[in-house]
Amino acid sequence: MGFDAPGTTPFGGCQPGMQSFAAYVMDRWQTGNLGCYNPASIIPGTNQMSLHGEGRAFDAALNANDRGELTRGDDLFYWCVANADAIGLQEILWRGLIWYWPRRGEGVRYPVQQADHMSHVHIGMDRYAASNWDSGWLPTEDDFLMGLTQDQQNGIYYVAQLIADGLA
Prior knowledge:
The chain is of the alpha+beta class.
């Protein structure tokens, strides 16, 4: 698991592992689906694909301006970061927060655009995960987390992020 630089050839649709992951996310966090596949290049006029162009990024529709959806989006974001290896997570963006595999030692950070991704959580996977992901990849401890309240889960993800950031 890890980082795969964007390629130059569109995949032609959402990859099977990404479809499985998107279905898992939509069911668990009750999100909408803003799509996975978009063949646009990452830099106009070049042939370098975005992760959406390779079918290995999913946009989970959640509105950061709605309190309930904000909570679910934060939960999803920190759950993905805490389970990055089991997901094959390459990048995740939500309401100005970004976690990126090559900079994982830096923890979660804010990019230049503070208000970016307010309508959805963008989740990108490495190539292997996008092709093969299955919920069986998740650690069995995740079942324990599902039995906790939303506030308890958020607290665990928050502490995990502090540890990842070297602050705890």
